[in-house]
Protein 1
Amino acid sequence: MGIVAPMTVSLRTPIQIGTVRFDARIVLAPMDGYSDLPFRVLTRRLGSGASFTEFINTIEVMSKNTKYQDRCRFTDAEKPVAIQIFDDDVDRLIAGGIRIYERFRPDIVDVNMGCSVNHVSNRGAGAGLLRRPDKVERIIAGLVKALPCPITAKIRLGWDEASVNYLEIGKICADQGAALVTLHARTREQLFKGKVDWDAIAALKSSLPIPVFGNGDVRSFAEAERMVEETGCDGVMIGRAAIENPWIFAGYDPETVPFALFYATVMDHYALVKQRYAPERAFIVFRKFAKKYLTKLGTSKDEIRGILTMKNPDEFEAALSRLASDDRRGRAPSTGADEEGDG
Ligand SMILES: Cc1cc2nc3c(=O)[nH]c(=O)nc-3n(C[C@H](O)[C@H](O)[C@H](O)COP(=O)(O)O)c2cc1C
């Protein structure tokens, strides 16, 4: 009889979230203003295991306003897709979730219980829901009963240090049939400051019978692997680090990503943005990403300023292609003086 090696779970091992399979356990986090359709497709191609939309306000969903619909659209290339919703009103949140499911057929509906922004959490939505476990129970129970797809939740540790209740909230979610809980391991009061509590991720994982993803300040693929190893969590969500480094899902840092992949990513991303938005909007949407890409490539500040102030989309695209072709990583920044040839 041969020796059976212990099963090792890597970030690239698929995971079942209810009836839905994530291709990997490292996943782009929902981020308002960033995790739009083009960025989700891009990061899926680079190895993110699933896609979560920017949060959708169910007040808008239940109003005559149709603007929100744009943020719900997705393509097959980014599936599986979770559409994330938020609200403080239980019935409206459930009704909004149903309406979204019927219109867009996402693979998952995710409930935001972690947003710390004042105008969201102070009215009792996002992380504000953590102060109302009774509402959490009714929301998850209501959505699970109403929809055939998995329902998931993204939470924080609690409202503040004095009211840390993630174990209670996690248990309510699991008891009511949620298929995944993602924990941004900070309180609402901490916003984005202070240390992310890996012990809490471990405690939540060991207390729940459903998958738990950890989230907060993970800056590299290796660190995500370490979070899984040390906390036992089932996967990791990556937010801000992915904006700086979409190659995190492929296991690279901006300094080590092969240049061919770097260039292809920039141009691929811009092509996706152009497909998604009207030309005059596309390059405005892309500017914030262009700045990050070019800074990492070592493009000079003056050249970056130049491209970011361009008004003409064609001019912008030509400049982008030219600057992104010039890999200056690891080179000393240009002094602006005439450069000598290397002989
Ligand atoms: C610009 C921005 C927008 C965000 N929007 C959302 C959102 O729409 N829904 C959500 O659940 N979390 C949102 N978050 C929180 C992130 O998903 C994540 O939990 C948080 O940034 C911590 O992870 P990170 O350190 O990897 O960024 C947002 C964060 C940022 C920085």
Protein 2
Amino acid sequence: MNQQRLWSSLQKLATFGASENISEEGITRLSLQKEDLAARKYVIELMKEAGLSVKVDVVGNIIGSLKGVDQTKPIVMTGSHIDTVYQGGRFDGALGVLGAIEAVRSIKESGIKLQNTIDVVSFTDEEGTRFGTGYIGSKAMAGELDETILQLRDDEGVSYEEAFCQAGFQPERYKEAIRNKEEIKAFIEMHIEQGKVLEGNNLPIGIVTSIQGPVWMEVTFEGHADHAGATPMNMRYDSGLAMAEVMLDVEKIATQYGGVGTVGKLRIEPGGVNIIPGISKFSIDLRHIDKTKRIDMVNKVREAIHQVSIKRGVSAKVDVKKSVDPKVCSPKVMEAIEEACHQLDQPTMKLQCGAGHDSLIMANITEMGMIFVRSKDGISHHPKEWTDTEDCAIGTQVLFNTLVNLAQ
Ligand SMILES: [Zn+2]
């Protein structure tokens, strides 16, 4: 594989949605916004340059195929996403897409003939930042999408359906994106670790054994937006304080269960210095590798919300925005990655994955595995997100060998 070619494509993709000072302000490339649409064109261009035949499905998944010798055989699929969070980094998702293009391009250039077709996929809206729920492209492929998603609106009031149509896709035909189980032999995703385990072990590459699935909830407390001066403390229905209590409960419950819990998005209305918060809306993200324990965590948090609402005399509404089951990786794909590392004399280790990925969804229709690449200081979803050039190249070489192992 060509390390320099991979690196320059990563740097080029990073310019779409980047602010002037990328190391401080990062990249904002939300799904289907103009930055994302421009980046998509670049990815399509790259795939064509790599000699892949490119197709974009009804929900905007970009699929580049390297045809195998035997096209009756199921395809081997690899890929990730190119959308980002607000002020995100250069590698999350991007490495999995561009690394896959580079790996497949190198396979083609080296004249290796594979039995199975390889599809490189850039999935639509993995992050879910714009409309509040993610994995849209992979869910469409796995047959897990339904109409309700089309009615979701972004902060500007644009519906998902409108955004899809404006981008030139056909959301009403979303069922046509579904892929059959028989069609796909395996799905493998290369991704930055977004944690510090590999760095701590001095290893550039890791093999993922299982993925935590997130539950996303949106909670709305409604109290009274009374005057901050005229309302004595004992006569208040302060939704902001209710929110503060639940935030601390989330911390307690997640710690107690050995999972993780985060409140990352808050909104208070009317939001004035001298007004008691009337409405407080906030997000909760709960994750655990064990599904039963995660269900217990969710129930405990729901109970805490209920108790706080009674105690403070505010109403509570809880919407579950996303619920993805944790998944164990396929032993077959893990073996193929291990074999690849062995072929390359590349030391590696097995580790769990804390973040959610398209792989979680793809695991419902095929054998799934993930290659992790070392992140500097474990920083991710942040302008300072970093993975060294050499590590990107090693990950891509491991992906190259893994694809050959699976498709020859
Ligand atoms: Zn990602």
